[in-house]
Amino acid sequence: MITATRTYDKKAIKEIMSMNGIRETIAEDGQNPDDFKPDLDTDCWLLIHDDDVVIG
């Protein structure tokens, strides 16, 4: 089952940031994806799960 959860968990965010293509997906328009750095102290992330596996 696909579910979504909100998180501030730095470990989970780092896991997401290591996924292929994620930086291109979430970088703002005109921003170099390689320069995109999440603000782990203040950003809230929505994690997408397929059962217990984070997929995005």
From TrEMBL:
Protein name (record): Uncharacterized protein
Organism annotation: marine sediment metagenome
Lineage start: unclassified sequences, metagenomes, ecological metagenomes
